[in-house]
Please model this.
Amino acid sequence: MIVAGVTEELRARFGKARRVAALTGAGISAESGVPTFRGGGGAAIWEWRGRPVSELSSAELLASDPVTVWEWFDHRRGLLRDLRPNAGHAALAGWEARFPDFLLATQNIDGLHAAAGSRKVVELHGSIRHGRCLRCARRVVLPDSLPELPPRCACASPLRPDVVLFGEMLPEGAFERAEAAASACELFFVVGTSALVYPAALLPRLARRAGACVIEVNPEETELTPVVDATILGRAGDVLPAFLTPGV
Ligand code: BJW
Ligand code: ZN
Model:
């Protein structure tokens, strides 16, 4: 079912649900001004210095040219500094208190869910605000301005960005937590993702297989659209708050 807004049937399901989970992607942060990776919703495909994200955010480039990879993430930390969470992030933060059982899994590394007040968040692809030591594995909060690239750990070894690049494993236990929530929920929301990157893209499919009603929120149809129960064509910041405020 493809709909243009929250229907009464979907709102009723939402009103009755107790176990809810959600997967978010870059599209939920688009209304805050964060570029998406693969376009959609009117945005362009993200490139930097003429290189695509698939190359910049890759384990291969980190191994061969760590300074360029740090410059790419430093550029993005600079963009994020002035950006704030939007109504979509705020709605999900509010749902955490509303449902006895709630988990938010995000592919985003921007920290905007936490900034909106979400606490039950699994960051599947890590965090742009942290580095990780290549020797002692310590996780370090990065200062606003980095004195050198790559920055160094207290043990003097270089740090790497604490994010999951293509070809790398997700943080230990992260997918498993999200998978458990997807398999146990009644309602699963998939918001602002092209659902092209695995294993995150498996989660809505797992939820469906386990019997959840899966609701997609995206201004465009995606690979998932034929698989889900309902696709609400719209922006996250308009659609998510409308589950609680009919008529908006
Ligand atoms: C709006 C909107 C608005 C716009 N409101 N919506 C199985 C099959 C095939 C391949 C694989 C597979 N398993 C693993 C792979 C390989 C690979 C992969 O998936 N490749 C595919 C691209 C084919 N996966 C991996 O490598 C993963 N690791 C792994 O599987 O480890 C095990 C393993 C290791 C070694 C060998 C084999 C297995 C790791 C994936 C890590 C992805 N990392 C990135 C970069 C993170 C750092 C960074 O930020 O730079 O994560 S890639 C990039 O894509 C980023 C995102 O989190 C991720 C997903 O993108 P997302 O969020 O969906 O964004 P977009 O831009 O694609 O979509 C935005 C959407 O928003 C659009 O639909 C718009 O319409 C919409 N939108 N405005 C609501 N207002
Ligand atoms: Zn160290």
Summary: The mean pLDDT is 94. Residues 47-82+133-163 form a domain with the SIR2/SIRT2 'Small Domain' fold (CATH 3.30.1600.10). Residues 25-28, 30-31, 36-38, 40-41, 53, 57, 107, 109, 125, 163-169, 192-194, 196-199, 217-220, 222, 235-236 surround BJW (ligand 1) (CB under 6 Å).
